[in-house]
């Protein structure tokens, strides 16, 4: 009886903790959405209104169409900034995944001179604060005329996304038995054939997770983009979100609308690759 009571109490505590975590995670996004369909009067009302008196989705149509009734230039630039963020992020993810896979496979399967120091150097690059690197990177971009260009941001993002992916992917590849590749090579596969036909399908869970991490790192990057961009030629969404203001001050409603739209691509990527993570975990849990 006492054991059953203790078990029920533990389950209740677990559910309460899960509920707190869910509310803590979802509440900011819920309030962001509520603010995006509210008016300034609703946001500044006392007492606070948890739901607007007259919800309106006009800001979403204005943002997507690039037109607005006020003089906010950021609204007309939203489409261009969204395009820049998508192009930069997709290119960074593609290059990082391709190069990171080959590099992590080499680190995981081969032992060569300098293996340990090079791997430690890859990890060391993640320990350097961005504020320390921004001046030398800025000087290099200035010398090669890469400031205010997408290429400059792509190269800059690769400098911290690629080492991160190499480190994560190496951990996944280390967990894949070498016997699988050896069996495939005995059956006639080459080294690269075994890599593409055996290793990659088994590492699908790790690949899905790294794609999500790489996408979020590139999509949300603000510090370098803020300092390296000036015009719509390369301005990204995180930078544009700071520019929603009018002659009366910051426009929190438009900023919330842009924030909701900017958060949709990472959520979509997470939902798309979530099924690969779940399928990989379930496949690894079943024998035979």
Average pLDDT, all residues: 85
Query: C-alpha Rg, in Å?
Result: 24 Å
Described by the principal axes of the CA atoms, the overall outline is globular
List the total number of helices. 13
CATH superfamily membership of the largest domain, which one? Answer: MetI-like
User: Could you give a short account of the major beta sheet?
Assistant: 2 strands, antiparallel
Structurally, the number of domains stands at 2
Instruction: Return the CATH architecture of the largest domain.
Output: Orthogonal Bundle
How far apart, in Å, are the first and last alpha carbons? Answer: 40 Å
Strand content: under 5%
- What's the helical proportion of residues? over 70%
Could you please describe the fold and organization of this structure?
This protein has 288 residues and is mainly alpha-helical. It folds into 2 domains: 1-56; 68-284, Orthogonal Bundle (MetI-like fold), CATH 1.10.3720. Helices cover 74% and strands 1% of the residues. It is built from 13 helices and 2 strands; from the N terminus they run H-H-H-H-H-H-H-H-H-H-H-H-E-E-H. It has helices spanning 2-36, 40-43, 58-65, 73-109, 115-124, 130-143, 150-174, 178-186, 191-202, 204-220, 223-228, 237-240, 252-284, and strands at residues 245-246, 249-250. It has a two-stranded antiparallel sheet with strand order 1-2. Strand 1 (245-246) and strand 2 form a beta hairpin. Helix 3 (58-65) packs across helix 4. The radius of gyration is 24 Å and the shape is globular.
């Amino acid at each position: 009886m006492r054991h059953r009571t203790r078990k029920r109490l533990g389950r209740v505590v677990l559910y309460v903790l899960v509920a707190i975590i869910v509310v803590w995670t979802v509440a900011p996004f819920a309030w962001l959405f509520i603010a995006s369909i509210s008016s300034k009067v609703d946001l500044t009302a006392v007492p606070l209104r948890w739901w607007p008196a007259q919800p309106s989705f006009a800001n979403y149509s204005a943002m997507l169409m690039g037109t607005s009734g006020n003089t906010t230039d950021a609204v007309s630039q939203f489409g261009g900034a969204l395009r820049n963020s998508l192009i930069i992020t997709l290119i960074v993810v593609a290059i990082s995944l391709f190069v990171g896979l080959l590099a992590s496979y080499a680190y995981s399967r081969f032992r060569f001179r300098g293996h340990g120091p090079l791997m430690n150097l890859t990890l060391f690059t993640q320990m350097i604060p961005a504020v320390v690197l921004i001046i030398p990177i800025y000087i290099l971009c200035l010398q090669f005329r890469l400031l205010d260009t997408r290429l400059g941001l792509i190269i800059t993002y690769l400098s911290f996304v690629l080492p991160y992916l190499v480190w994560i992917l190496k951990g996944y590849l280390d967990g894949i038995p070498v016997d699988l590749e050896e069996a495939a090579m005995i059956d006639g596969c080459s080294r690269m054939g075994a890599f593409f036909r055996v290793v990659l399908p088994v590492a699908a869970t790790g690949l899905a997770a790294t794609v999500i991490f790489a996408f979020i790192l590139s999509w949300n990057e603000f510090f370098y983009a803020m300092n390296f961009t000036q015009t719509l030629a390369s301005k990204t969404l995180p930078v544009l979100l700071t520019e929603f203001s009018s002659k009366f001050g910051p426009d929190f409603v438009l900023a919330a609308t842009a924030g909701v739209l900017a958060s949709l691509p990472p959520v979509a990527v997470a939902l798309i690759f979530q099924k690969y993570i779940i399928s990989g975990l379930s496949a690894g849990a079943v024998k035979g």
